[in-house]
Amino acid sequence: MRVRDRLISGAVNAATDVLLLILMLILYSLLSSYMAHLPIQFTSIITEYITLIAAFAVLAFLRGLLAGHVLAYPVILGEATLITAIFLSIPGTITAYGVTVNITPLIYFLWSVEMAWVVYSIIDQFNNTLLDP
Fold first, then answer.
1. pLDDT mean values, one per 10 residues, the chain (133 residues)
2. Considering its fold, how many domains does the chain have in total?
3. pLDDT computed for residue 14 by the predictor
4. Dihedrals φ, ψ of 100, to 5°?
5. Helical H runs in 66-103?
6. CA 99 to chain centre
7. φ and ψ at 95, to 5 degrees?
8. Structural Rg of the chain based on CA atoms
9. How far apart are the C-alpha atoms of 73 and 67, rounded to whole Å?
10. How many angstroms separate the CA atoms of 121 and 73, rounded?
11. CA-CA distances (angstroms) from residue 120 to 30, 71, 87, 116?
């Protein structure tokens, strides 16, 4: 791969991964504020997750930049570790007005979608390695 192609691949990976992460974090914030009957505050959502989103964008950019290189695999595993840490920090139940709702299945579903993306990324890296030695 040429350097230009690697930069474009890194930018596309960063954009898609960050958008997916932002959508999942907004989904969780909206669900928790709906259950607690609180007004939605997008500024607090943005300030809470800005560092996390920046770290995720850097990892996704590195993954695209290192496409076809053996150093891409530790970056993918680091990204998977970051995703797992995010989902482990989410509480499994939300309580509002005496009603407790278990959102663990939703957390597992969103985590499995992200892990499927990681598995796809590893397979894609194998393909890039074979095509571009």
1. 74 76 73 67 68 76 74 81 79 76 82 85 80 68
2. 1
3. 74
4. -105, 130
5. 72-89
6. 30
7. -115, 130
8. 17
9. 9
10. 9
11. 28, 17, 19, 6
Structure-token pair, residue 2 = 């040429």
Residue 45: predicted pLDDT:
64
Against a cut of 0.85, is the pTM above it? Answer: no
Distances (CA, A) of 108 to 73, 84, 89, 92, 97: 24, 10, 12, 10, 25
Helix count and strand count (H, E) for the chain:
4, 2
- DSSP track, 101-133: EE-HHHHHHHHHHHHHHHHHHHHHHHHHHHH--
In b/e form, how buried is each residue of 73-87, taking b as 16+ CB within 10 angstroms? bebbeebbeebeebb
How far apart are the C-alpha atoms of 6 and 125, rounded to whole Å? 12
Q: Determine contact, residues 103/30, Cβ cutoff 8 Å.
A: no
Q: Which residues pair with 101 in a beta bridge?
A: 94
Q: Structural domain of residue 54, as residue ranges?
A: 3-131
